[in-house]
Amino acid sequence: NAGVTQTPKFRILKIGQSMTLQCAQDMNHNYMYWYRQDPGMGLKLIYYSVGAGITDKGEVPNGYNVSRSTTEDFPLRLELAAPSQTSVYFCASSLGIAGNTIYFGEGSWLTVV
Amino acid sequence: KNEVEQSPQNLTAQEGEFITINCSYSVGISALHWLQQHPGGGIVSLFMLSSGKKKHGRLIATINIQEKHSSLHITASHPRDSAVYICASTDSNYQLIWGAGTKLIIKP
């Protein structure tokens, strides 16, 4: 099993550009999450999904969109990138939400200039 | 609203020392998670526990549901244990609430 795979690992965007961070898991997990982590700070939930076709906002959803057309994939779209979106993004998945191990991708370092 | 507090925020110790990191949460939970984030950024799940104690190698995690408190212990600490340790609990909406993390440095 590959676990949770995120791409790209590094990306530099210009202000106003758009991009999609890809996330895939091969563990048949129902729950998938996108977090951002600013330097020296903790994880903040952007969006999460409890299954294919179902997504919901987390703590910091503004400027982002997600979709979950399959159980495996949970892409995060950045529209009109802003410097405030410079951060490290982590995708994660779990079988359930409360009592199951959470698996993280390796992270995507995004810089908006 | 559930809040998760970790202490200490930073901890520097010598190799071989016994390490304790604490996590307190404000509302009842169904599970508490301990994770490790290495300087390269990768996050690994260490423990998920809802009662009692779990042990994996030199790492031990305990939880006291009545006191809403969990601890992560590292025995015979080693420089490779240097990382940020994060705890997370679930709130009433079953969302994960993350602590700010404890940065641990083990000096040789």
Structural features, described:
The complex is a heterodimer of chains A (113) and B (108). Chain A is mainly β. Chain A has strands at residues 4-7, 10-13, 19-25, 31-37, 43-51, 54-57, 64-66, 76-78, 87-94, 103-104, 108-112. Chain A is globular. Chain B has strands at residues 4-7, 10-14, 19-25, 32-37, 43-49, 52-56, 59-64, 69-74, 83-90, 96-98, 102-107. Classes of the chains: A mainly beta (113), B mainly beta (108). Chain A binds chain B through residues 33, 41-45, 48, 58, 88, 90, 92, 97-104, 106-107, 109, and chain B through 29-31, 33, 35, 41-45, 48, 50, 86, 90, 94-96, 98-101.
The number of E-state strands of chain B comes to 11
Assembly category: heterodimer
Mean pLDDT, all residues of chain B? 90
Helix vs. strand class of chain B: mainly beta
Helix proportion of chain B? under 10%
- Main sheet properties of chain A: 7 strands, mixed
List the chains of the largest interface with their residue counts. A-B, 22 and 21 residues
Number of helices of chain B: 0
Unreliable stretches covering 5 or more consecutive residues of chain B: none
Give the uncertain stretches of chain A in residue-range form. none
In what range is the share of β-strand residues of chain A? over 45%
Structural class of chain A: mainly beta
Shape of chain B: globular
In brief, what are we looking at here?
The complex is a heterodimer of chains A (113) and B (108). Chain A is built from no helices and eleven strands.
SSE topology:
The complex is a heterodimer of chains A (113) and B (108).
Chain A: E1 4-7, E2 10-13, E3 19-25, E4 31-37, E5 43-51, E6 54-57, E7 64-66, E8 76-78, E9 87-94, E10 103-104, E11 108-112
Parallel strand pairs in A: 2-11
Antiparallel strand pairs in A: 1-3, 3-8, 4-5, 4-9, 5-6, 7-8, 9-10, 9-11
Chain B: E1 4-7, E2 10-14, E3 19-25, E4 32-37, E5 43-49, E6 52-56, E7 59-64, E8 69-74, E9 83-90, E10 96-98, E11 102-107
Parallel strand pairs in B: 2-11
Antiparallel strand pairs in B: 1-3, 3-8, 4-5, 4-9, 6-7, 7-8, 9-10, 9-11
